[in-house]
């Protein structure tokens, strides 16, 4: 079976008890912590910044932190999140004037780099920077909010992205973000994803262990 990663999005966690929530999903079997950064500029919502990432590291979180930047511009936040202990740093190509340079910046700071594509954005912007990418993240909802429905056209895009990655022969994660649950995770994996962000499906459940186990069962089927 592929090496699938489950990355709960803390956007749907209880922010008043964030450290405990992160501990709980990791103890429940999650692989990564998906960390959504919104600036009320690139997206119409505002969340958390590098200080909170650092606080999670100081709290003792050693799991990979998958920082999804929905901010514009990106370079200052890349520097600050690298310093705050991010593992992956991904950004939206529209939010950087110089995509290749921002990707190089992430690499130079010792983090893994990725680009995030909105539902209507084609794969063109990743094509010429594949050698700089550790991850392609496809949005299956419009960024800004948790709890939205998966946009089905993303399945075709996943297949295209998977073909592109496989043809490149490079080790690039294909992550999906938005509207993922145990109900659709198998279909999404079959379309080529190997990392799965899930916010509301996990944090709105009473039993994190049960919902993550259910997702893994679907992935193994
Ligand atoms: C949306 C965020 C997502 C969000 C996913 O802009 O990037 O990570 O938390 O939430 P769900 O899984 O509820 O769609
Ligand atoms: Zn996200």
TrEMBL record:
NCBIfam families (UniProt xref): PRK05581.1-4 (NF004076), rpe (TIGR01163)
Chain positions recorded as substrate binding sites: 9, 68, 144-147, 177-179, 199-200
Residues that bind a divalent metal cation: 34, 36, 68, 177
UniProt-annotated catalytic positions: 36, 177
UniProt organism field: Biformimicrobium ophioploci
Catalyzed reactions per annotation: D-ribulose 5-phosphate = D-xylulose 5-phosphate
Protein name stated in the entry: Ribulose-phosphate 3-epimerase
This protein's pathway: Carbohydrate degradation
Keywords: Carbohydrate metabolism, Isomerase, Metal-binding
Signal peptide: none
Cofactor: Zn(2+); Mn(2+); a divalent metal cation; Fe(2+)
